[in-house]
Amino acid sequence: MSKQFKGIKVRIYPNKQQADLIDEYGASARHMWNELLGMQKARYDSFKELYSDADEETRSQKLKGIYISKYAMTYLLKPFKNEEGHEWAKRMPSQALQNVCADLDNAFKKFFKKQGGYPRFKSWHLHNDSFSFQQGCEALDSHHIKFPKLGVMKFRGFNSLCEYKIKAATLRKGHDNFYYASCRVEHDPTHLKKVQRVVGIDLGVSDLAILSDGKKFPKLENIFKDYQRSQERLKVWQKKYSRRREHAKKIIAMTDQMEKKLGHSYEGKHNLEDFSNLQKTKVMVARYYTRIANQRKYYLQQLTTELIRNYDTIVIEDLKPSNMVKNHRLARAIEEASFFEFRRELEYKCDWYGKTLVVVPPNYTTQVCSTCGFKSGKKELSIREWDCPKCGTHHDRDINAAKNILNKGLNKLKNKK
After folding, report:
1. Is 278 in a helix, a strand, or coil?
2. What does the pLDDT look like over 47-84, one tens digit per residue?
3. pLDDT score at 304
4. What is the pLDDT of residue 21?
5. In terms of Cα–Cα distance, which of 292, 379, 381 is closest to 338?
6. Which residues of 31-68 are buried (b: 16+ CB within 10 A; e: fewer)?
């Protein structure tokens, strides 16, 4: 079987010098992105001015030479470094600068294919500065990793990383003031043993996943006390942040009024970044958001791995979470359930381990009797159990939906054959 790639995210522990270099390289990568994007935008703006009165055929011919490809941008890096005021680019690893060119080129390709919007300039306070290495990264053992120009540092989060060959790594400092490395590694997955079992899965709000064989997986908050505690602590820190932010705004307004009265600059705090307690609270909010996200990801990984091991064919609904969250009463519960992430993990794990994933439309799964096929119409969410008017079978709403999903998936597989 051909080798595949997967991503592994670990937390790294750089020393003071290494942390300063990561911050500097990340800011330089952001600055280089903005410089290259500004150059591309300036070329296109000048093209529009020069050929504003030209016919469409001439414009389409001239437009081909306006965009600068990844290789041309890479070629321009050397003269850019030699210009006055660009000493920061000389200190930047060459790999990281080349990766910025590749990333911008990919962004424009998606834009040209209408798969994304026009690339945007990166702001220091809205983006997590990051940079990438394409080679030279190596996990020395279960707790130490080596990066070019940075040296060796400790890491935590995946002890068996040293068993993989790291093909690329992206380093960044998160909003929680912790440092992370996202490693792209090469691995050779082996197919799991067939168990000759099939299952349909209905995703819900009261229970995360309901299987057609009657098994139910509860929501994360119903089984993990740590998750509930993290949610409670997040609310506390959010309230603290809101109070301190309002207090800081009042002080800034008072300082500005004092300057107007005196007619000259007044020593005081003029920006929210000047308030250390506010910034500490902001970091704590970000850390609890990260902790909650990690707990949710861990639970989904455990759940999807169990499903892959116990079933050969898995049938799920083709849900549209973006439409589902329009129901404001259930929006938060739907977001926390992470339906899209659940499906994404099943897709790549089925591909890795030789299992089959079938996706079916969600139409009428709660309205049809899974025993006789009678359609009984829409039901309120408060109705959790019901009896079929035709055959008299007593149904659990969610289990019946999971059985209908399974039947749809099996019919879909038969039609393919």
Report:
1. helix
2. 777 777 777 777 766 666 788 889 999 999 999 998 88
3. 95
4. 95
5. 292
6. bbbbebbeebeeeeeebeeeeeeeeeeeeeeeeeeeeb
Give me the residue label for tokens 């490809």. 69
∠ CA 295-301-306 to the nearest 5 degrees? 130
State the burial class of residue 78 (Cβ atoms within 10 Å of its Cβ: 0-12, 13-18, 19+): exposed
279: Cβ contacts below 8 Å, ≥ 6 apart: 273
Rounded CA gap, 195 and 198, in Å?
9
Q: Do 400 and 366 touch, CB atoms closer than 8 A?
A: yes
**Above pLDDT 70, what percent of the chain?**
97
Report residue 326 CA to chain centroid gap: 21
Checking DSSP bridges between strand 216-218 and strand 151-156, what pairing results, if any? unpaired
Strand ordering across the sheet containing 138-139: 130-133, 165-173, 179-187, 4-13, 151-156, 144-147, 138-139
How many helices (H) and strands (E) would you count in the chain?
13, 14
Mean pLDDT along residues 362-368:
86
Task: Tell me: pLDDT of 1 over 60.
Answer: no
Q: What is the pLDDT of residues 77-134, one digit of tens each?
A: 999 998 888 889 999 999 999 999 999 999 999 988 888 888 999 988 777 889 999 9
Separation of alpha carbons 214 and 196, rounded Å: 18
Contacts of 294 (CB under 8 A, 6+ apart): none
Q: Of 241, 317, 323, 254, nearest to 282 (Cα)?
A: 241
This prediction's pTM: 0.84
- The label of the residue with tokens 């592994």 reads 8
Q: How confident is the model at residue 330 (pLDDT cuts 50, 70, 90)?
A: confident
